[in-house]
Design goal:
heterodimer, A: 130 residues, alpha+beta, Nuclear Transport Factor 2, Chain: A, six-stranded mixed β-sheet, 6 strands, 29% helix, 45% strand, globular, B: 132 residues, 28% helix
Amino acid sequence: MSKANYEHYIDIVTKRYFDGVDNYNMEQVLDCFHPDAVLTEVTSMTVHEGRDEGIKTMFEGLFDGFSHIWHGNFVHTADIESEAICSQFSVEITPVDGEELRYENCNRFYLRDGKFSRVFVYMSGDNLLR
Amino acid sequence: MQYQSSLSRDELIELSLQKYFANVDAKNLDAVLDCFHDNAMLTIQTAFAVHEGKEGIRRMFVDFMAAYKTIIHRDFTCTVDEKNGRITANFVAELEDHDGNRTELHNTNFWRIRGDKFQEVYVYMSGENPLV
C-alpha cells in the first residue's frame, strides 16, 4: 500500500479514533490499530500491547470507568514522509460518580499502511489509561 | 494560532535540533534565545508551567543551565509538518547536576514557527519538570 495522503492522518485521528473513543464505539476505535500495535502512556510508562489484547482491555476499563469523554481543540503535526502524526488536544472526562476532569494531552501516532502501529500518550495529570 | 513559516522541512529540523538543542546542550544561551521571537511562549504542558516572552524564557534557561553540569538531548525522532510550520520531536534528555545526580526523561516537544523562529513551544515530559 502506498503512503496515505495528508488528510488521512488528520481524519484517522479525529474522525475515526477520537470520534470512536468519545462515542464508546470499541469496534471503530480498534479498527484504527494494527493487530500488533502497542500503546504506551509515557508519563507513567504504562504499556498496552496488542490491539485485541492490551489495547482493547485498556479501552474497556476507560469506557466502564467514565460516563462522559470528549477530545477537542486539536493542533496536529502531520508528516506523510515519516508516516506519523503528533496531536495536541484537550480532554474533558467525567468519572462515573465523579466530577469532570480537564487534561491538556498529546499523542504521537506512528502509522504503517494507514493504521496505527505505535501510539505514545502524554497526560497533563494522573494516568487514566491503566 | 496558525502562523506563516518560511522554513523548508530540512530547515525546520535544523532550527529545532542544531540551532536550538545543540546550543542548549552547549549552554550557548544567546544562540538558544535567537531561536525565539521576542513575544514567544514556552509551555511545559505536563506541569502547566508557562514562560512568556524572550525575557521569561531567558530566565528559565539561565536557571536550567546553572542547575545542571551536563545537559544532553539525544535520539531524536522528528515529525515535520512543513505546510503548517510545525515540527515535533521525541527525544531522551540526560541531565546531571553538580552533585552527580542523574535524570533521564523521555520527552516530546512541539514547535510552532512564525517566519523563521519559534513562536510557541510546548514540552511534554515523562517525569518531574526541570524547566522551572
